Amino acid sequence: MTSSKPPFQQSSSFRSRLWTASLLIVIMLLALLSRLVDLDVLHYKKFRALAHNNHVALVPVAPPRGDIVADHGEVLAENRPTFAVEITPDQVHDLPATLDRLQKLIRLDHRDLQRFHSRLAGRPGFDPAILKADLSQPEVAAIAVRSWQLPGVRVVAVLHRYYPYEALFSHVVGYVGPITAADLRDFQARSYLGRNYIGKTGLERFYERQLRGTVGYKIKDINAAGLQIGTLRSRAPLAGDRLITHLRLRVQKAAATALQGKGYRGAVVAMNPDTGAVLAMVTSPGFNANWFVDGISTTHWEPLLQNPGRPLMNRADNGLYPPGSCAKPFFSIQALQDGIISPHYHTFCRGNFQLGGHTYWDWNRSGFGNTGLTKALAWSVDVFYYKLAVKMGIRMQDQTLWRFGFGRRPAIDLPGGAAGFVPTPRWKKSHLHAPWYTGDSVILGIGQGYLLVTPLQLVRAVSSLANGGFLVQPQIGKALINPLNGEKTPLPHPEPANLHISATALHAVHLGMEACVNSGTCRSVSIPGISIAGKTGTAQVPVGRKNGHTIYNNDSLFIGWAPVHHPKIAVAVVVEYGGHNAWQALPVARAVIRSYLQPDWKGKNAQPAEKLAKSG
């Protein structure tokens, strides 16, 4: 059947449809071209990166943390290989469901989950976070056989921080722990990609930047199923520096055995008086540093919190104590230096001192009779120092205490630490709303009252008497060793401050402190063949009230050095509630001095501290 339309009308209709089709084709081509320009020109970098990320994964590789070792090479903190399960949040579709599934495969408690979520805070989603470390072999196997059901979850071999001596160096070496958002406020977050731990306390915290090393990376080729099919590029991590310390294992053990082994609360600090090198720093009670590496469990945490001995506090650097009679040598130096008394000054001590209708008793109420400086130091004659305090007055007393480093924290390579407290008339007026009385100075003259010091300050101050009048800066770190080339870099040590103490004043005080060991209150610290100078201290500490009266306990203290004329070790010991006449502090000091100067001595009470070191 033929069309009824004329030929010219059919041609016109065909051309119209052709133009319409052509226009549609052109529009479609323009749209396609526009999209190509958008993808390949205007947003080329963006879509190239997206395409790249669809088939590669950047995986940070944590470096081994540097070891911490004692002066003679004993390892105090090291890394041990173990297995851990880690989760990469970006690769997990449903994190709560994944965690629920893992709880059926491995043992996870609420603290494990709490620590995991804490680790995730402040970290990018592509950075894997440890869920649980130190997996058992059955736990590793349980996850491995179900890995195809757990995208973003994998078992990895990691280096686990380990402290071989557990409780022995826990306060001074410190410990590492899981990284939190709070930790990253002090350090650059990008420096901790791929890491699980950060230094929390002690040397681990202070030398964090040197110990942590430099993160490496791997750029992995990933297929559409999310499985690795190759490594495109990598950079090996750089291990952290090895930290060599001045700490001596034998001296630390001796201090711990004498202090912790007998259940005493307190602290010991031993130092080279010429250099400030810290040989030992022990706090009792202690704790097992390994408990904190993966986040401490409730089983260990609750007893530590409930322990009235506060085992987490570093008493050596943070404990505040009245120095008692250990302050007397320093007041003696100042009085001699400023001409308040001469080396030949004597006074009569009848057992008490009267001032303004108040009686200040000597510890020996029978009195000591005619007393000079040597006898006053040897027997810790309180009346001698009551009278000296009145002669000196509070301004000179404060000048003395500040001069020997009290009232400010020594610049040691440990985080935190206490400054102690030196009272002043201005402080008393503003805080207690009362004037400074002469009686306050009398009490301060025997190291009591408002004065508070740390064991670290005491050992630093007595070192200045031992070394001829130089206030040294205590330091624990000795050197850093580069892991690549083994190059050893000594750590800089600040120059000591010259106190400009006269030889006459030093000699007079030395005689008194030698006499204290040879014939006075320090006799039980004496060691045959070793000359020792020392001073005992007994400080009354209020511990409560009963029937309207304050109840006091006595802290036991000792400061000293040996040998007298060629000093190699200075020691400060504090035993809380240690009794009168420092009877508990003296054997502790004796054990420490002997361990350093007579290392081959074997006595009936000498015993290794390995069992003690592994207690908590």
Brief summary:
With 616 residues, the chain is an alpha+beta fold.
3D architecture notes:
- It is a single chain.
- The protein is α+β, with helices and mostly antiparallel strands and 616 residues long.
- It folds into two domains: 57-243, Penicillin-binding protein 2a (Domain 2), CATH 3.90.1310; 249-280 and 318-592, Beta-lactamase.
- Helices cover 34% and strands 22% of the residues.
- The strands form seven sheets. Strands 2, 3, 4, 5, 10, 18 and 19 form a seven-stranded mixed β-sheet that branches. It has a five-stranded antiparallel β-sheet with strand order 12-11-23-22-21. The protein has a three-stranded antiparallel β-sheet with strand order 1-8-9, with no helix packed on it.
- The protein is elongated and about 150 Å long.
- The termini are far apart.
- 42% of the residues are buried.
Give the secondary structure arrangement, pairings included.
Blueprint: H1 7-42, H2 44-53, E1 56-61, E2 68-69, E3 75-87, H3 95-103, H4 110-120, E4 129-132, H5 137-144, E5 153-162, H6 170-173, E6 176-178, E7 197-199, H7 202-206, H8 208-211, E8 216-222, E9 228-235, E10 242-245, H9 249-259, E11 266-271, E12 278-284, H10 298-306, H11 315-318, H12 328-337, E13 346-349, E14 352-355, E15 358-361, E16 369-372, H13 373-378, H14 382-403, H15 425-432, H16 438-444, H17 455-466, E17 470-471, E18 477-481, E19 488-490, E20 497-498, H18 503-518, E21 533-546, E22 549-562, E23 569-575, H19 585-597, H20 610-613
Parallel strand pairs: 2-10
Antiparallel strand pairs: 1-8, 2-3, 3-4, 3-5, 6-7, 8-9, 10-18, 11-12, 11-23, 13-16, 14-15, 17-20, 18-19, 21-22, 22-23
